[in-house]
Amino acid sequence: MKTKSSKFVINLKVANVKIKVITLVTLFFLVLSCAKKDKNETTDTMVVDSTEVVVNDDHNARNSLDYMGVYEGILPCADCEGIETILQLENDESYILNTIYLVKTKHINKTKKSNNEVRGVYTWNDAGNTIVLSGIENAPNQFFVGENYLIQLDMDGNKIEGDLAEKYVLQKKSDSGEIPPPPPPPAPDSIKGNFIPQKTLFTFNKWKLVELNGEPVQNTSDSKKEMFIQLNKENRYAAFIGCNNMMGGFELKEDVMRIKFTKGASTMMACPDMTTEQEFAEMLEKVDNYSLNGNSLSFNRARMAPLARFEAMK
Predict the structure, then answer these.
(1) Which string of DSSP letters, residue by residue, matches 109-130?
(2) Residues 313, 205 contacting (CB under 8 angstroms)
(3) Antiparallel, parallel or unpaired: β 94-104 and 111-124
(4) Cα dist. 280→209, 241, 262 in Å?
(5) What DSSP character marks residue 83?
(6) For residue 131, what are the contacts with CB-CB under 8 A and spacing of at least 6?
(7) What span, in angstroms and rounded, lies between the C-alpha atoms of 1 and 142?
(8) Can you tell me the distance from the alpha carbon of 257 to that of 250, in angstroms, rounded to the nearest whole number?
(9) Are 245 and 269 within 8 A, CB to CB?
């Protein structure tokens, strides 16, 4: 009897141990299953949250970078030692671009500098990452905007690739409102052969009309009969457009390249064809800004194509 009783007790203990083991194993798998479920839910939530951030992220250079300021660098040049470039961007979307062509003479190991200054307004592309400089023709006028740097793009607005790609970068030097770097050396005036500090609307006495509303203007070889506009520092203008003399006033904000002509007057001579004269008068009423590029001047409206182009007269 003792033997059977002992066996029964032992079997009962073994059974209890098995039950406990099974219970523990079951609990372990339940906990593991719940942990996996929580992990999957967390991962799903993270994926959803991450997707939402990507979709809602519409930041670009135009609305998230402090891009205004002065940028400098020496850009590659096909027929010179390099182009020292200084580009200043203002918060009113105006710009000043100085380009200095570095050229070595054949027999003297020194670098001569030829300077050109352009002023105008800049616009942004749809993506908000590239600016386009107005008043520049037959040369690259687009820059990709990064944090504290600009990259000059090619004529088609694409990034330049190859060994020289890293050379087309302008680094930011100072913010707008601070003292800019010293101005470049004075440039030779190609017309008079002397030196001037910088070209303005008043650098030349007269500006000859060469294009009106996108069409070239035919001027005679006699300088007295060439079509021109003359601007003075008293904010008065005089013009001759083939027949009558025109005159009037204008409002000028030279620091931001803005100009607005007031309603003027003209002589009343009868002329066979006054079409150009009438178009010129209408053009003056539309102008609200201008661009200077060396000895060339253009009158513009907003960001559209130039309404009129002029060349400096001797």
Answers:
(1) --EEEEEEEEEEEEEE-TTSSE
(2) yes
(3) antiparallel
(4) 10, 8, 14
(5) E
(6) 89, 122, 123, 124, 125, 142, 143, 145
(7) 105
(8) 13
(9) no
Under DSSP, the state recorded for 302 is: T
Beta partners for residue 118, in sequence order = 97, 293
How many DSSP H helices and E strands does the chain contain? 3, 20
Distance CA(167)–CA(182), nearest Å, equals 23
pLDDT tens track of the chain, all 314 residues? Answer: 445 555 555 555 555 656 666 666 666 666 666 555 554 544 444 433 433 333 334 678 888 888 988 999 999 988 788 888 999 998 889 999 988 888 765 544 545 556 788 999 999 999 999 999 998 888 899 999 998 899 999 999 999 988 888 899 999 885 444 434 444 444 444 333 443 344 567 767 789 999 999 899 876 554 457 899 999 888 899 999 888 889 999 998 887 788 999 888 888 888 877 888 899 999 999 998 888 887 889 998 876 778 999 998 87
Residue 204, class by beta-carbon neighbours within 10 Å (0-12 exposed, 13-18 middle, 19+ buried)? buried
Nearest CA to 310 among 187, 226, 254, 189?
226
Q: How many CB atoms lie within 10 A of CB 70?
A: 20
Cα separation values, 81 from 75, 101, 193, Å: 9, 8, 24
**How far is residue 193's CA from residue 187's CA, in Å, rounded to a whole number?**
10
Residue in the structure block whose two tokens are 């457009």: 241
